[in-house]
Write a structure and sequence with these properties.
The protein is built from 8 helices and 8 strands. It is an alpha/beta fold. The protein has one domain: Glycosidases (TIM Barrel). The protein has an 8-stranded parallel beta barrel, surrounded by 4 helices. Helix 4 crosses helix 5 and helix 7 runs parallel beside helix 8. The radius of gyration is 18 Å and the shape is globular.
Length: 302
């Protein structure tokens, strides 16, 4: 499936459900004077959502937004017993997916999502080259080649169900963790026939963590962007998650640099989804008035 148009599509993750997120996004539309086009949602398999919330997805579409569903085989952090690390969930390992443990669940989603009215972005098992999710290629006995096989396996079930309403987004993190031979981003690529859009996630953590430092937008994304555009130069490209801390530098200038590069060197990027919540730090566009004004001004130039 395709989404036509050449303009940069801007999206938000707001940590709201399918019903509240559109209402909140319309307020951002008024503030920005431009229209948010993509709304991002995360659906963990472990939550027991045997079927997708079709009414909610249709509500997002009717409100004029394109949903992007990040489909996650795990129990999210809030659902885990104390002391269990998020990645330590072997029941969601790639081998478990490949041996058919979740076939009924996958099939139900594949069949039900045929009912949606227009294409939506679908982003299964993102950031697979990291070690913080149970489907990561270096945890739970997983290997990068298992990820490639699991992606193709999941998509084959959707094909058997006759589901052609999804835009499949393959979305690694900007750098692999661990950063070592055998864990390079390219090892996780399922192939051009299995992927509709390329995606890339990345953050400027600034000085919010002991291990972090301020990084420019170019520092964060340049290397990963180069890898992915070489893998499949004909595919449309999105930044599936992005955020910037305030601590350690000038966030307003960081935003200005980002939009400048999206108009220039990073011209293959057709969509950007901002992770607009307070979590590890205040990633939000409105973390300061200066940052908000910079986002509004520089987006208007795209």
């Amino acid at each position: 499936m395709e989404i036509k148009g050449t303009e940069l599509r801007v999206g938000l993750y707001l940590a709201d459900d399918f019903y509240e997120a559109p209402r909140k996004a319309w307020r951002y539309n008024q503030f920005f004077g431009k229209r948010i086009q993509i709304l991002s949602f995360y659906i963990p398999w472990g939550r027991g959502n045997q079927s997708p919330d079709l009414a909610g997805i249709q509500e997002v579409l009717k409100s004029g937004f394109i949903p992007m569903i990040t489909w996650e085989p795990w129990y999210c952090v809030q659902e885990l017993p104390e002391g269990i690390r998020p990645e330590d969930q072997p029941k969601f390992s790639l081998s478990e997916i490949l041996r058919g443990k979740y076939d009924d669940y996958i099939w139900q989603w594949a069949v039900d999502l045929k009912e949606i009215s227009t294409p939506i972005f679908f982003r299964p098992m993102h950031e697979m080259n990291g070690n913080w999710y149970p489907w990561g290629g270096k945890v739970n006995g997983n290997r990068p080649e298992d990820y490639v096989e699991a992606w193709a396996y999941i998509r084959s079930i959707f094909r058997k169900a006759g589901n052609d309403k999804l835009i499949w987004v393959w979305s690694p993190y900007v750098h692999s963790s661990p950063d070592e031979p055998g864990n390079e981003i390219w090892r996780y690529f399922p192939g051009t026939q299995e992927v509709d859009w390329l995606g890339l996630d990345g953050y400027n953590w600034g000085e919010t963590q002991e291990w972090s430092r301020w990084q420019s937008f170019q520092e964060v994304f340049e290397k990963g962007y180069g890898h992915l555009t070489q893998l499949a130069p004909e595919k449309p490209f999105m930044i599936g998650e992005v955020g910037c801390a305030e601590e350690g530098g000038d966030k307003s200038e960081w935003i200005e640099e980002a939009f400048g590069l999206l108009r220039g060197n990073f011209f293959q990027i057709k969509a950007l989804v901002w992770f607009n919540i307070k979590k590890e730090c205040d990633w939000r566009i409105e973390s300061s008035k200066k940052s908000f004004i910079s986002f509004r001004r520089n987006w208007s130039l795209c």
